[in-house]
Amino acid sequence: MTQPIRLGVNIDHIATLRNARGGRHPDPLRAAKLAEQAGADGITAHLREDRRHIVDRDIERLSAELTVPLNLEMAATQEMLEIARQHRPHACCLVPERRAEVTTEGGLDVAGQQDTLKRFVDELGAAGARVSLFIDPERQQLEAAAAIGAPVVELHTGAYCDAFLEAAAQGQAPDDATHRELDRIVEGARLAAALGLECHAGHGLTFDTVKPVAALPQVVELNIGHFLIGEATFTGLDAAIRRMRELMDQAREAAAAAL
């Protein structure tokens, strides 16, 4: 039986909008509570070194007031480790971080940083967090994640989404590049399961790109943020999340029926 798929809603860009002007509005905590009411199974927030969107006070409030799990996205730094130990979120997703990037540009190089990342996996796990590694869907990275004892991986779906949107912008159906990138995710999810890793996915997913990823039986959670916050400016956050939830569930049900 194909298990249900969870939706984690990333609220970073509610904080981006707030920070553009300063003050307290719009409030990320309010967005998180609305997301829960609309069907989100968890909330994701990325506390960056430069605090460009989510800030420490947001993590304090989310940790204290959420009734769904909080997934803290963080770089593998001592500062973030101490913050995670203090607030003890349900989950911590280790992501690469460069100050100059606009958004996360790719997955962690787990294979090249095994010793460093193993320490964070072990210490965060000891603090009670479900630890995941944000990686590209590549065999080398998946095998390295398993080797250092990470219980969860989150597959980077950005290249697939970018290829899909590029074809759409040219008035074309999904092209060979789109299918190649989707195939990488399919194979990555299968390998993750074979290695005993819980498999999540996210980055760049939209109403148009979510179904093929949500249909993968090995993927148990999707984390989606930027698109939902952008769509909310037109339809409202509740409607955007409910529509995403509906599409994910449709894809899952269709995949189960095809078995």
**Secondary-structure element series:** EHHEHEHEHEHEHHEHEHH
Distance between the termini: 9 Å
For the biggest sheet, the summary is: 8 strands, parallel, barrel
Oligomer: single chain
Total E-strand runs: 8
Strand content: 15-25%
> How is the largest sheet built, in terms of strand order?
1-2-3-4-5-6-7-8
Q: What is the average of the pLDDT values?
A: 94
Helix content: 40-55%
Give structural notes.
The protein is α/β, with parallel strands linked by helices and 259 residues long. Helix content is 51%, strand content 16%. The chain is built from eleven helices and eight strands. Strand 7, helix 9 (210-214) and strand 8 form a beta-alpha-beta unit. The longest helix is centred in the last third of the chain and has 22 residues, at 237-258. The termini are close together. It is found in: Cytoplasm.
Blueprint (SSEs and pairs):
Elements (H helix, E strand, L loop, with lengths): L5 E5 L1 H10 L6 H11 L3 E5 L9 H10 L4 E5 L3 H10 L3 E4 L19 H13 L3 E6 L3 H9 L4 E5 L1 H12 L6 H19 L3 E5 L7 H5 L4 E6 L1 H10 L1 H22 L1
Parallel strand pairs: 1-2, 1-8, 2-3, 3-4, 4-5, 5-6, 6-7, 7-8
Helix pairs in contact: 2-11, 7-8, 10-11
